[in-house]
Write a structure and sequence with these properties.
With 538 residues, this protein is an alpha+beta fold. Helices cover 21% and strands 27% of the residues. The protein has three domains: 23-100 and 228-425, 3-Layer(aba) Sandwich (Rossmann fold), CATH 3.40.50; 108-220; 445-538, no CATH class.
Length: 538
């Protein structure tokens, strides 16, 4: 409320200071794409914990496939490794074949009233035979007389656990068919609510003329059919749904085995993986792709032969600075089998490590070195020789290996681009970060008057972003003038530019290079005689 100043004195007023650069603290969003037991198809779902993932997409068990052996998806292991290594939240996209006929069906059941007519259908929230393990129970809480009479009822949803016992997972009480009764809520609106509704079933085909659903102790859904497995092209098509999310984003397409029994065997013909080119993501320039470069190493295969297969597969697809590749697979304790280990692709653990470094150091820090330890890894599937590690690095493939005193660490920080400053992951992700923050912090300028006052505000907004980045070590230079420049004045905003409705600002940044090779020169001194050796420290 404005004050009226009528007497001499001191007046205190409170106002909210809105700083355009307050939105500078962006957080990288992680996204996984792959095969799961259940969940919406091609729709990104947010998981803030491992338990969220299990509820939405299922657990680590092999996945049933129509007329095929059970498949082993590495997506659950990647998401588990992500949270184990410092990831806080992730989006998950369930992939399925592009043909609708191959996408399976969801389990369903008709809920009846006292007559044979149907009140409504209960359908599993996603396709698959998992929905056939659901039961519902309906209890009448009270009956309200009228024309027609209406029941107040409660619905329980039960799910069969791994021991074959049905457990109550949800209860919704105080429901009615119309929602008109005092103190009741409309049944379909409650269960179908996207936030507080059921995580297991949907209500459809409601007949509002039926007001007294019949009580039921336990009745199972039926008719659910699992989708077929997607091929690499279908997985890439599913990954394109990541464009529905706001960036910046790190993306990983998780592989699978068509036959779970072939895990850790010499038969690798059933391995299906996909590498998505950044060009397929449209005009998005804020998505960084983490690739699991190769399939598992067959038992007995030499490290040299495995290295050759990796470099051959990736040599035909050099990629760009918006993607990085990692090898070999890592060995982790099996999350659900105490005392056993399992070999899994490294992408999930790497993305969790990236999220951890982003929050503790900054996006400008290379996600590599002893700081980039993979916390849940107890070993690597393949130990490469120094020569083989050099060959991988020359092909811009980031190796994961054991480092004395630090554990299992990522010892490579390159993108798939072979030249330029942005061949390093830290440089590319710093540019993505700066572009995203600049875009968000300059939204205030849209439709402002295009004059010197706006140009000054834009320069100040950019400086408030870049100066802290330089002070934190994210830009190179002894002072701010060497680290970055900002130009927004009449030299680039000419009358013709202003007349076209544009305001232009040029920003230059001096990116940091990671110390990829540390060279120590040792000199022996003995009474005027020198001899020297060069020792690679890493």
């Amino acid at each position: 409320m404005p004050l009226t100043y009528r007497r001499p004195g001191v007046y205190l007023e409170e106002s909210l200071l809105v700083n355009p650069s307050d939105v500078a603290g962006t957080v990288t969003v992680s996204c996984f794409v792959g095969v799961t037991q259940k969940g919406p198809i091609n729709e990104p779902q947010l998981c803030e914990s491992w338990s969220d993932f299990v509820t939405l997409f299922g657990n680590l068990d092999p996945i049933a496939v129509p007329a095929s052996p059970k498949a082993l998806s590495y997506l659950p292991f990647s998401v588990f490794s992500f949270f184990q290594n410092g990831g806080r939240f992730a989006w998950v996209i369930r992939s399925a074949p592009t043909a609708p006929a191959d996408r399976g069906t969801a389990g369903t059941i008709a809920v009846n009233d006292a007559s044979p007519a149907k009140c409504f259908d209960l359908t599993a929230r996603s396709v698959g035979t998992w929905g056939n393990n659901l039961q519902y129970g309906l209890t009448t809480q009270s009956t309200v007389a009228g024309t027609p009479a209406q029941d107040v009822f409660a619905i329980q949803i039960m799910l069969k656990n791994s021991e074959g016992i049905y457990e109550v997972v949800e209860t919704f009480a105080g429901l009615s068919m119309t929602g008109d009764l005092p103190g009741t809520r409309k049944g379909d609106s409650v269960l179908n609510d996207s936030v507080s509704g059921s995580q297991y079933v949907l209500v459809s085909a409601v007949d509002s003329t039926k007001t007294q659903p019949a009580p039921q102790t336990a009745r199972a859904l039926a008719g659910g059919v699992d989708p077929k497995l997607p091929d690499a092209a279908s997985m890439i098509a599913s990954a394109q749904n990541v464009t529905k999310l706001e960036g910046p984003i790190t993306l990983n397409i998780c592989s699978y085995l068509t036959d779970a029994s072939k895990a850790d065997t010499t038969d690798t013909t059933g391995f299906v993986g996909a590498t998505i080119p950044s060009s397929s993501l449209g005009d998005r320039q804020d998505i960084f792709i983490v690739n699991d470069s190769a399939g598992p190493r067959p038992p007995g295969a030499t490290s040299s032969a495995y290295k050759t297969s990796i470099t051959t597969a990736l040599g035909a697809n050099p990629g760009d600075s918006y993607s990085a590749s990692y090898t070999p697979w890592i060995i982790i304790p099996h999350p659900s089998r105490v005392g056993t280990t399992v070999s899994v692709p490294p992408g999930g653990a790497v993305m969790g490590m990236m999220a951890r470094i982003d929050s503790t150091v900054g996006v400008f820090r290379a996600p590599a070195g002893v700081i980039a330890g993979l916390g849940n890894a107890v070993g690597v599937q393949t130990k490469f020789t120094d020569t083989e590690l050099g060959d991988l690095n020359a092909q811009n493939i980031n190796a994961i290996r054991s480092v004395v005193g630090a554990g299992i660490c990522v010892m490579g920080g390159r993108t798939r681009k072979s030249y330029g400053t942005d061949r390093y992951i830290s440089a590319r992700r710093t540019l993505i970060f700066v572009k995203e923050v600049m875009k968000r912090s300059t939204q205030f300028a849209v439709f402002e008057n295009n004059d010197q006052r706006l140009w000054s505000a834009l320069r100040m907004s950019a400086d408030r972003i870049l100066r802290p980045l330089w002070e934190a070590g994210g830009l190179r230079g002894a002072n701010a003038a060497q680290a970055y420049f900002i130009r927004c004045d009449d030299t680039i905003n000419t009358p013709a530019v202003i007349a076209s409705g544009e305001v232009r600002m040029e920003v230059g940044v001096a990116l940091e290079y990671p110390a990829e090779f540390v060279i120590i020169r040792l000199t022996q001194f003995d009474q005027g005689t020198y001899s020297s050796e060069v020792v690679p420290a890493a």
